[in-house]
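forwarding from the other thread:

> can someone predict this with zinc ion?

sure thing
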Amino acid sequence: MKGLRVSESLEGEKLDVLAVVLSKDNLGEELSKIPGELGGIASRPVGLGDFDASLGSSLLLYTGSEEFPRLVLVGRGSSSDWEDSVERLRVAVAKAVTTARSVKKARRLGILVPGDTDEYAQREALVAAGLANYAFHRRGRSEPPHRLEEIVLQGSGGERVEEEAKAIVEAVYTARDIANAPGNEMNPEGLEKTVRRLAEKHGFSLKVYRRNELEEMGMGGILAVGSGSSVEPRLLVLEYDGGGSKTLAVVGKAVTFDSGGLDLKTAEQMQHMKFDKSGGAAAIGAVVAAKRLGLKLKVVGLVPAAENMPSGSAFRPRDVLHMYNGMTVEVGNTDAEGRLLLADAMAYAVEKYRPDYIVDLATLTGSIVVALGNHAAGLFSNNDELAGMLEKAAWRAWEPVWRMPLWKPYYKQLESSVADTDNVDGREAGAITAAAFLSKFVENTPWAHLDIAGVAWKRAHGPDKPYYTEGATGWGVRTLVELMKILES
Ligand code: BES
Ligand code: ZN
Ligand code: ZN
């Protein structure tokens, strides 16, 4: 989005809505800082109603003033909600945006945060505002959803904060747009077209491998997953070289629709499976962000794309696949397809780029949703340093991750009598055995896997954050931005 700004003062901005962010512990003092006549309106006892600045609460007031006709008070809560004050700021600012969006006439929103905010907090406030202003809009739909045209945050951060926020928001929008797009349009072919446009627009390079090339290269995993679909699978390789000494490979699962294949899912399980391309969407978003931010490192985004469908040409349970790294895999279940296409892409990343680090993101298992719900992604890693950096990055972005074990005994569950490995075991520790399978394809490269099945799209059981709009969350892009900033040199 274009209209995201930081300004020293909100005076003369012709705002349709002015939002003031207030903390629960400090309500009285902060209210006294609201400028001029508005201060009077907001602090008159009758004017506040039941508003107590609890986290995510809001109160819309009509002021009668010409300069600030509408005032929204939003609650930042207190440290008993979340200790992290920046996360509470994100929630409050995003709530200001959703409240302003609910006013049909509102175009321009100003946001005032009493007290000191450093550059990081200002940037994150702007990012949260931008994310809350998102709507998925397909061409051809007659009435686009109402969005604000301009959001101005009062702050001292200036252009740098503004530019960073805009780049991050655009990268997350890109990921959300891809993940939200329906499976019939954003199939592997549609995804290739979309990424070609992005490569041209932003100026990163793109190589696409189609079926013939995948056959020549011996990518039996990607080919098998795509074999039941009338649309060819692909491997998209996005490259951004910002100099610096480090190379990061980001691999993202892009199953553009996961029906389960011959191990067909139930109708209900299939409902959200257009979102099975969310990992790939995040990888693409990360490359967009790296380029827009001009980060000093090399980033390779590898996105294996396929549609998992049942048909006469589909792969079968108990098939044996020949993978890119020379291993053979017995297919225990065609619905455990993500790990098959990731394995080829990861082995290729390791062999071709010898990256310093490899991170993969995937809506990989229902098992991780059982374990962590919708509040955190599962983190698996063969390297404590990388896992530590990712944890730090994830908390800075407030995309919580929780580390899971990859102990040797779990590997026993994948043994096969006809191939080097099976691709599944039963329900026990399903997210861990999936990660254990992936680890067989990275050699000794420091690697981390994020299972984002629980957090890739907004669900009834939360997280109920106003910067997550309906549908895809774009989860992972902001964590990767923070990780890439740590790796910059
Ligand atoms: N895409 C699914 C995982 C998934 C499930 C994502 C629910 C989001 C919500 C994946 O391909 C899958 O079907 N995994 C199976 C593996 C099983 C067959 C071993 C699962 O988790 O049930
Ligand atoms: Zn599946
Ligand atoms: Zn899947």
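The chain has 17 helices and 18 strands. thats all i got for now
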